[in-house]
Amino acid sequence: MGFRNGIRERKRKATLKQRSINPEIYKLLQKIPVKSNGYIFDTDNFKQAYRLKHLLKQLDIPETTFHGLRDTHASFLFSKGIDIVYVSKRLGHCNIQTTQNYYLELMPEKKHQQDADALNLLSSLSSETI
């Protein structure tokens, strides 16, 4: 990890993405020895999943997957009002439509709130013009 407060992940062979992280996580990651391939985590998905399961069990946290952690992270950002454009870029989606389709389906209350907000806006516009 030769950069400050970030994690680089390989999305595709030709693409390398960088993600910001908080300083506490960065300090913890610095304690993990770098492997001979230059990474701190194995690239074998089975080993990663096994280690995550073991770590969550040690911490008494319900079992999940890396993708589950990603979904939780995105849902948390949305619940705090973080802009969908930022979240979409953070997730590495090529376009915002991918983010909207997937996460609005996961968070129906967000879609319902947006529907209500849109209807309220339209109602206020029609009452202003009358």
UniProtKB/TrEMBL annotation:
InterPro entries: DNA_brk_join_enz, Integrase-like_cat_sf, Integrase_catalytic. One of its GO terms (molecular function) is DNA binding. SUPFAM superfamilies: DNA breaking-rejoining enzymes. GO terms for biological process: DNA integration; DNA recombination. Residues 1-118 form the Tyr recombinase domain. Signal peptide: none annotated. Keywords: DNA recombination. The keyword DNA-binding does not apply. This is Integrase. It comes from Streptococcus acidominimus.
